[in-house]
Amino acid sequence: MLNIRHHIGLGELTTFGCSALAEHAVVVTNFQDLQEAVAFAHDKGLAMRVLGSGSNVLLTGDVSGLVIINHMHQRAECVDRRDVHIRFGSGENWHDAVTWTVHKGWSGMENLALIPGTVGAAPMQNIGAYGVEQASIFEELEAFHFDSGEIRKYVAADCDFGYRTSVFKRELRDKVMITSVTYRLSLDPKLVTSYRDVQEELAAMSIIEPTTLDIYNAVVSVRTRKLPDPRIIGNAGSFFMNPVITSEQASQLLEKHPTIPNYPQADGTVKVAAGWLIEQCGWKGARHGSCGVHDRQALVLVNHGGAVGSEVLELAENIQRSVADTFGITLVREVNVW
Ligand SMILES: Cc1cc2nc3c(=O)[nH]c(=O)nc-3n(C[C@H](O)[C@H](O)[C@H](O)COP(=O)(O)OP(=O)(O)OC[C@H]3O[C@@H](n4cnc5c(N)ncnc54)[C@H](O)[C@@H]3O)c2cc1C
Asked: Is the CB of 15 within 6 Å of ligand 1?
């Protein structure tokens, strides 16, 4: 029998840690739970939202409707001559999944080590780090549609993956729950070492010909050193996306600000480091009531203790305004605001 709870605190279920209540919430561990939960919501006319590990959600007020907390676990692998196809239940912890595959000797997920969250949320914003996005290993997923009760299969072409986006973050937001994701990993490592941080870490480890495990260890080491740990200080990782601008805009900007870190993309656009823009506007380490900007990572907003979501949003808007005034660039939030 499904245990639907009412008016329960969600703050501790998110890494930012801002308090809010869910009108109704339920933990689902399998498909039958999910069907029952959705039937309950339909019966009461409630909207639904899925919560994974809460590492990319900012709570700004109580959440009406039903929050479906995803604990659907599963791992099933199928090995062919060169590849391994692994189907993960969407409630699997992402980093545990990465660690497991690396120790099996399978390659493809190692650059994405230590990203918090569930496997089911990974396609949502097409998570990425150190030169790799989950799209590069994605094979297919299954999503349960709340309105029709149908399970539909999505291959990469259906997902419209882009930089921190997909059809699940846009058109299908809060309309489906991703229930499983299948990744294709390689038995024959194709390592990505293009990122300077990874190269420097490997050099510091005196590794010249890295293995999949070496890359994993290097990424874990860099991330542990550079990123604020949500267990110590509340945060949701990068609060904003790195803006992508046209090459003409980039040339004009570089004329005025020659040191701006910029990364030309294959399609001719240019990605600009949002953290640098924020830092140049003087926000690094700034406090705004109980929240603030991290003192080492200007792209990360933090909860110093007891921050409320509206306060964090206010800070975010102040930052957006000052970056727009100084550089003429609009910063877009990466974090999902509830
Ligand atoms: C310290 C830190 C570092 C981070 N570093 C990175 C990084 O390097 N790269 C990166 O891309 N991200 C990064 N993130 C962001 C975050 O880890 C990812 O976005 C992650 O995929 C979120 O997973 P989650 O389970 O916590 O999702 P949640 O925060 O619970 O949910 C995020 C959104 O996805 C939706 N959602 C969740 N699960 C499902 C599902 N099964 N079906 C449908 N919708 C769903 C939710 O409704 C919500 O809108 C970081 C976050 C932190 C705190």
From this structure: yes
Is ligand 1 within 6 A of the CB of residue 230?
yes
Instruction: For the chain, give every domain's residue range.
Output: 5-70, 75-186, 234-337
H or E segment to which residue 271 belongs: strand 270-272
- Which among 8, 16, 67, 7 has a CA at the least distance from the CA of 309? 16
5-70 with 75-186: one CATH topology? no
pTM tops 0.85: yes
CATH code of the domain made up of 75-186: 3.30.465.10
CATH number of 5-70: 3.20.20.140, 3.20.20.150, 3.30.43.10, 1.10.1740.10?
3.30.43.10
Q: How far is the CA of 53 from the centre of ligand 1 (A)?
A: 7
pLDDT at 82: 87
Cβ–Cβ contacts within 10 Å for residue 110, how many? 29
- Residues in the chain with pLDDT values less than 70: none
Query: Whose CA is closest to atom 24 on ligand 1?
Result: 117
> Tell me, which fold does domain 234-337 have in CATH?
3.90.78
Protein residue with its CA nearest to atom 2 in ligand 1:
237
pLDDT number for residue 2: 87
Over residues 267-288, the pLDDT tens digits come to 999 999 999 999 999 999 999 9
Residue 218 has a pLDDT of 98
Strands (E), 61-173: 63-70, 75-79, 83-89, 128-129, 132-133, 138-145, 151-155
Ligand 1 atom index nearest CA of 228: 1
